[in-house]
Amino acid sequence: MFKGYVHVYTGNGKGKTTAAIGLAIRALGAGKRVCFLQFMKSLDYSEQKILAAISPNLLLATIGKPFFVIKEGGMPAEELAKWREEAVVFPPGNPPQEYVDLINQGLQQAKAAVSSGEFDLVILDELIVAMHFELVTWEQIKEIIEARSENVELVLTGRGAIPELIEQADLVTEMKEVKHYYQQGVMYRKGIEN
Predict the structure, then answer these.
(1) Chunked in runs of 10, what are the mean pLDDT values of the chain (194 residues)?
(2) Which of 9, 95, 128, 173 has a CA 20 to 30 Å removed from the CA of 163?
(3) Which CATH architecture has domain 6-65+95-177?
(4) How large is the angle between the packed helices 16-29 and 46-54, nearest 10 degrees?
(5) How do the domains of the chain map onto residue ranges?
(6) How many CB atoms lie under 10 A from the CB of residue 134?
């Protein structure tokens, strides 16, 4: 029987979701069934257009982004001013309940995906970021890991993986930013960053 492992793709560098997409394509090519849940993302990313139609063995779902969230004190004032119209700023420890409820629905879907026997590979894209924004707890993520059937490969992506998650994982890849054109004022580009 195939034994599954837990992967974590983290770090400040670009490429975490891209690596997960690559693994999904490889698994689909091998005839495996893949569940790809994107947390904190809307249906505005280019990969969704092709992934949704690539194979009947792929379930792709976004566990929405009704709005951006920013923790109070988590961003310099000049940067925050750019996001003020598009984001909800919340005090640490008190994230917007609407967002927490939405993420909780996704967590239930994730738990079912890892334990149902329906999927060989389950990718929880940006779930680590949701934990950073206090929309999900480490205990909730740990429950998903522990609910995983032994043959399910599980991938969690997002910057800021905590030591407990790193310890629990079998494979951890840290994307390290060495240089990024964002620092030169280049914003997200369709087909490259989203």
Answers:
(1) 92 93 96 94 69 90 79 79 78 88 95 97 96 94 98 97 98 88 64 63
(2) 95
(3) 3-Layer(aba) Sandwich (3.40)
(4) 10
(5) 6-65+95-177
(6) 16
